[in-house]
Design brief:
mainly alpha; two-stranded antiparallel sheet; elongated
Amino acid sequence: MENTVEGISLPLIVFGSSLYFVFFALSSTGNFFVVIICYRRRASSLNWFIANLAMADLTFTLLSVLDAISFFSLWVGGQLSCKIQGFFISACYTTSIMTLVVITYERVKAVVNPFNARIFDSVSASKKVISLWVISLAIGSPLLHAYAIVKDEESHIAVCSNEPFGDL
């Protein structure tokens, strides 16, 4: 067991780290380009929603770096970064899910009633995007209380965890 980190073999760590790096690079560049493309094109409700989805996914990707780093060492940044990171990751995936629901609803409206569908209503779309983020932040707000740095009982290493909520 010489070549292990917390019981995980070195080849598995190298493979997992490489895979994570590939996913991180693809997610970062892909979502960044989607945001740029949506920004350059004409403002439409669909572009607003796609850009919002890409921003939520990009933010989620960037925040997950802290989790990857903490896998190999102590939690970086302290108590505040633990709370904020857990809160924003939850808000980002909640925003992603709700944005997909809104896109689906908008597309159903366009298919069911194509002559009344508002294709280029960017003002309404921007209000919906802001509402999605406000709702997501409200849904994730209990995690500001739940996340805290705790010492792992086995390794005595500081980890960011939401122990008060357990499996909830």
